[in-house]
Amino acid sequence: MDVILLQLLNGLDKGGAYALIALGLTLIFGTLGVVNFAHGALFMLGAFCAVTFNKFLSLEKVVLDPTKTTAWGTPMEVRTPYVEAYLGDFGAWVLNYSVPMSILLAIPVMLIIGFAMERGLIKHFYNRPHADQILVTFGLAIVLQEIIKSIYGANPIPQLAPSAVSGAADVGAFLGFDPGVIVYPFWRMVYLGFAGLVIAAVFAFLQFTTFGMVVRAGMADRETVGLLGINIERRFTIVFAIAAVVAGVAGVMYTPILPPDYHIGMDFLVLSFVVVVVGGMGSLPGAVAAGFLLGILQSFASMNEVKAILPGIDQIIIYLVAVVILLVRPRGLLGRKGVMES
Amino acid sequence: MTSNPTPTRDLAVFVIFAAAVLTMPIWLAPIGAAYPDLLQKFAIYGLFATGFNLLFGLTGYLSFGHAAFLGVGSYTAVWGFKLLGMNPVPAAAMAIVTSGLFAWLIGYVSLRRSGIYFSILTLAFAQMSYNLAYSVLTPITNGETGLRVLQSDPRIFDTAAQSGGPLVSTLFGIEMSGYPGFYFCATFLILGFLVAQRIFRSPFGTMLRAVKSNQNRMNYTGLNPRPYTLAVFVISGMYAGLAGALLCITDPLAGAERMQWTASGEVVLMTILGGVGTLLGPILGAGIIKYFENIFSAFNEHILQDIFSFLPEALQGPVVSISGLFVGEGWHLTLGVLFMIIVILLPGGIMEGVGRITSMVKGGSRKKHQHQTAPAE
Amino acid sequence: MTLIRKPLSRRSILRAGAAGGVALATPTIFTSSAWSAGYLNEPTGSTVTLGFNVPQSGPYADEGADELRAYQLAVEHINGEGDGGMLNTFTSKALKGNGVLGKKVEFVTGDTQTKSDAARASAKRMIEKDGAIMITGGSSSGVAIAVQSLCQEAGVIFMAGLTHSNDTTGKDRRANGFRHFFNTEMTGAALAPVLKNAMGEGRKVYHLTADYTWGWSQEGSIQKYTEPFGWDTVAAVRTPVGAGDFSQYLTPVLNSGADVLVLNHYGKDMVNSLTQAVQFGLRDKQVNGKQFEIVVPLFSRLMAQGAGDAIKGIFGSTAWNWSLTDEGSQAFVKSFGQKYGFPPSQAAHTCYCQTLLYADAAERAGTFMPSALGAALEDFEFDGLGNGPTLYRAGDHQCFKDVLVVKGKENPSSQFDLLEVVEVTPRAQVEYPADMLGGELGAYNNGV
């Protein structure tokens, strides 16, 4: 029982991450009709916002100490972070919370990046074939990750969760189990909550604001909305920027779970497309549902008991589900009929 | 294709193409590409891209899992060596048959959907093949190390003299490595080109183009497009399988990474870079990407300093460090930038660029004619 | 010979080239002397070319960059530039700082991308186009084995870089291939006694293993050497390479009853699985009345940097660490640190040593011919390269030297000072019979 609960928790946690990435991808596809292969790169850029913020905070005052020497004979460098040097305890506190605080940096940065990407590149591809969109955004993704690599190197750069939530939480005790039976990393719980919050915010925005209404109308029938004299193009720019922000903050919060490197976006790319397709192209609730579903399935498929019956199932379960869904219900779990069905 | 293809024109193109391929060791020498391994890769990936273009260029079905067939072809060929002996012909034949069967299976399922759903289905199948080859199927694929021919393998048709010799594929006593290997691959490339050309011009090819331009209309006329698309999918898979086999014939090792989605993506990039739906484009695209991968990645600071040594000292440093971003370990950056430029400015790939230049030279009367890359779905 | 048949074809191309009137554009044909050579790519001019085949893109790019730095340093030292580094401490004094056999050493580089296909393609380019006489480098066993067999077929020497699987000099050994780095067998033999002392006998072990040859090899070695003192395997779970998020493999560990977790991962996988295991609170757990422990059999300082604080107190093994105080290590750290501003990694160390060893063997053999040069390396005893007295065993072309058992340092004094050497396991303790791992060296191939 506890094993099942743990894997369920794990699946929800994975699902939260998948859903967040797929959400932005679907938003872009549903409104703009663009297949954005650079979406993983946006996630990666978000993660590197956290890295940059942390690097900036931990900028060090370097003093050469002539009394000590390094193993290769040059004077030893003594390093103290400026924040700590000048702000004392408060500085240390800021440094401790650098990951959640870098969201404040990531939001404007990702807005600008999203805005620039849409105006500068994506805009010109609305009426081009999907293959062209895939290729140009794929090219962009490569360029972005190579730039990051030339700045930060190829190795993963660890980011720490705030010390208050860095350990493992005894979830089981909270639910009335024996203590120590169901423990789960605190930060992953935070991530799950955060994912839920962002998803709720995006839905609320689309559901309860006039802007969101127009966007939803545009998703359903772009031409008619255009005929009504509404400047749908400008709204698309904002939608794209929002999607970039969602991907970016998802990346920021993921850094304590997975130390980011330049390739982290590509690793998520294929998976996020599968999630979107399983959920139904252009369906936001579908993307969220599929994200959680695939997360949970992947978690359970990795259990030793399951693998004993079906060896290797943990490696292919996601693709297997995608194949089955596409054959049985081609529009995806919650997709509307006719979208991309040709 | 600026003018209507005629049999004479086709023949001329074919002859020129064959001559160009066979003389590659000469005219590629000045750019440092005339060494056997890279020439073999040009021929093999040209063949792979040609096959891919038959599917994508004619029907518009964008497969994102073509590398799976390349991988299956490779594994089959190496198993052919292991069991039957080092003759390349049975290995290649087996690879074509197996990859054809595999393509038929995947195609039968995947072609029930079109557009991006088809792409995701093929991608899913390829990723499953890759993940399984890497882990559970290790007894067949030898996992990450890759499948190789060993001295202890049965190789039943090998003569005693061969069985003690080096483990390289041999045809009539000629080892299929180095330049002989290149000519062997080049022969298949030329044959593959010929077959592709015939398909392009045949009623079958016309039918496939009809699938691309308007499947609904085709359905209304009472024609079921499925058998045609499945047939071309299988043919395309066989091209990939043959390419995979040739990889192993020139170098008897089959690794799982040949089946990864990035490898599938590579052939898409080759085709689009060169020009979708053109006969020569994919081969050109394959050549350019392989050239980048092999030559650009090898530039290091020393070579750059040599190249820019004509510059004054003060300028040399910055120029070397800036250009250093794009070569050596940064060759992916060049690739990414190149793609973006091509896709933004020349949607029809390099062949469109060539076409534009030609028509400009001729007076630019047929400008409008070029823009024919129809949507993928 | 085999893969590269230059003699005949080159000449026929020459004829064709002359006929085509483009011969002037192909000067390499005239400078190449391949058809007069006694062995492939015999250097006839005043220089000799080595091929450095390292990962420049992909997950091991940083390690590859460090390897390349070491190679450049080695070339400088062999050519008599710089301070000479470990040439001064190396017990063999054949190298005089004037290149090798009077020829200046030059090099070409290539990107393995940590993929067998790409690595073989770039090695072939260096052999066929650039005339490299030797190939070295790499940061993965799969790639090392693939390139080694290529070099065997082509007829050049392969000096393996960082490759830790038993297979490289075990069942996939080749006459033309040589490895200076250690392997999982030695890791098991060196690590087990330390683990026994630190964690006690009779423990329940859970293995998470990267699903490929190196992972299996590592898992087997740890089991083999810890079972005698009662470490039982509760479960050995295979994880896909590059899984990224290991949480679904870590959750079952929590209540499995195991009290030791062995992470048979390397590179990015190791960084991720270790960080996540720590986040799962495994290190704070008490199981079976014992403190829960994590073991990472193969450590590298570059990886330790990626894992951050998670590495503290974790046991593992490594080939070499820059904090060693012997003369050779210090000389190497000094010249590397002065040139680049930071200390070398174990990958850099093994690559630097391999280059010196190759050059030295050529000097002693008086030729670059693989068979003669290989014979000079076989059963070669040396010291002064940072690992104590070392033997290049003839039976499997594997180096035998001391192995370091290390622990993540609790209070690092600098950003590079991450590993603390717990024990230098003497060579005698990690030796094993040459035929134990199977495999057949075969005969040398000179490529003609």
Largest sheet of chain A: 2 strands, antiparallel
Compute the separation of the termini of chain C in Å: 5 Å
CATH topology of the largest domain in chain C: the name is Rossmann fold
Query: What is the CATH top level name of the largest domain in chain C?
Result: Alpha Beta
Sheet/helix structural class of chain C: alpha/beta
Beta strand count of chain C: 17
Poorly predicted regions of chain A are none
CATH architecture of the largest domain in chain C: 3-Layer(aba) Sandwich
Determine Rg of chain A (CA atoms, Å). Answer: 22 Å
Number of domain modules of chain C: 2
Largest interface: A-C, 52 and 49 residues
Q: What does the oligomeric state look like here? A: heterotrimer
Protein architecture, described:
The complex is a heterotrimer of chains A (342), B (377) and C (448). In chain A, strands 1-2 form a two-stranded antiparallel ribbon. A two-stranded antiparallel sheet of chain A has the order 3-4. Chain A has one domain. Chain A has 15 helices and four strands. Chain A is mainly α and 342 residues long. Chain A has helices at residues 2-32, 39-57, 82-87, 89-96, 98-120, 130-152, 171-174, 186-208, 210-220, 222-227, 232-254, 264-279, 284-301, 304-309, 313-328; strands spanning 60-69, 75-81, 168-170, 183-185. Chain B has a domain at 8-260: Orthogonal Bundle (ABC transporter involved in vitamin B12 uptake, BtuC), CATH 1.10.3470. Chain B is built from 18 helices and four strands. Chain B has helices at 7-22, 24-27, 36-59, 67-84, 88-110, 115-134, 138-141, 160-164, 178-201, 203-213, 215-220, 226-250, 261-274, 281-295, 301-307, 313-324, 331-345, 349-362, and strands spanning 147-148, 170-171, 174-175, 253-254. In chain B, the strands form two sheets. A two-stranded antiparallel sheet of chain B has the order 1-4. Chain B has a two-stranded antiparallel sheet with strand order 2-3. In chain B, helix 3 (36-59) packs antiparallel against helix 14. The model of chain B is unreliable at 366-377 (pLDDT under 50). Chain C is an alpha/beta fold and 448 residues long. In chain C, 37% of the residues lie in helices and 18% in strands. Chain C contains 14 helices and 17 strands. In chain C, the strands form four sheets. In chain C, strands 7-6-8-11-12-16-17 form a seven-stranded mixed sheet, sandwiched between helices. Chain C is globular.
